[in-house]
Amino acid sequence: MSAVAAVDTRVRAHAQESRLVPFFFLATAFCCTFAKVQWSAGGNIFLADLTCGGFLLVYGLDSLGRRSRPAPRAALVLVGFMIAFLVVYLIGFFNLETAGALAQWAKGMVKFLLHFLFLFAAVALVARRGERYFWWALGVFCGGIVANALYGVLQLGVAQTTGGNLDAAVLSPITGGASQINIYGAVQGASVYRPNALTGDPNHLGIVLVLPLLVLTPIYLRLAEEHP
Q1: pLDDT tens for each residue of 17-73
Q2: Can you list the alpha helix ranges (DSSP code H) found in the chain?
Q3: Is residue 158 within 8 Å of 132, Cβ to Cβ?
Q4: 3-state DSSP call for residue 142?
């Protein structure tokens, strides 16, 4: 009966939770590799920053009317790392010598806190919702990487066949900025292209494409043989 009661409690908690909480969380997981989708407004503001900020806002408001729950161990470990990195980051404050350096330090601090707070809240959310939701979140994250890779294939195809710039047609009207596929050089007058997709750099794209393997391989190796 205790197990049934626990499941019933979890179902009621989810029923009361705002739908905006999982929306902004999954949106952030999906677009966190879309580095090109950014705007210049007092600094570079990425699409993932906006969805991340939206998640923290609705998560905080949604938590106000709820009974507080103990934070999962993984979230507390993240807080420990955040404090350790924060100490190192604050030490750098005393080496600042110009107003420009102070401005950059402040922008970095905002990003640092935004992303670490997102990690803390995201881990707490996934731990509360259970294993099935973890797989959903991981699937959405990998889906964002697949979308990024598909854009890179289209970007390369357009550049190779027409010499055109797909970013100018798709991204620039949205962001107001200029971007294009990376040109590595030329061979007999023909450009050699290296797709950067939505990451902004071919090397960053390579790292992003490896992430699913790095995440899924250890999980796969630890699963029981009969696991679906």
Answers
A1: 788 999 999 999 999 999 999 988 767 889 999 999 999 999 988 888 676 677 788
A2: 2-16, 20-31, 47-64, 73-91, 99-129, 131-162, 166-170, 172-175, 202-222
A3: no
A4: helix
In the structure encoding, which two tokens stand for residue 115, read together? 């992303």
CB 208 within 8 A of CB 216: no
Length of the chain: 228
- Cα–Cα dist 68/152, whole Å: 44
Inter-residue contact 26 to 55 (CB < 8 Å)? no
pTM: 0.81
Using DSSP's 3-state secondary structure scheme, residue 93 falls into helix
Please say whether the beta carbons of 10 and 130 come within 8 A: yes
Distance CA(117)–CA(75), nearest Å, equals 10
3-state secondary structure of 39: strand
What letters, b where the CB count within 10 A reaches 16 and e where it falls short, cover 114-143? ebbbbbbbbbbbbbebeeebeeebbebbbe
CA distance 38 to 36: 6
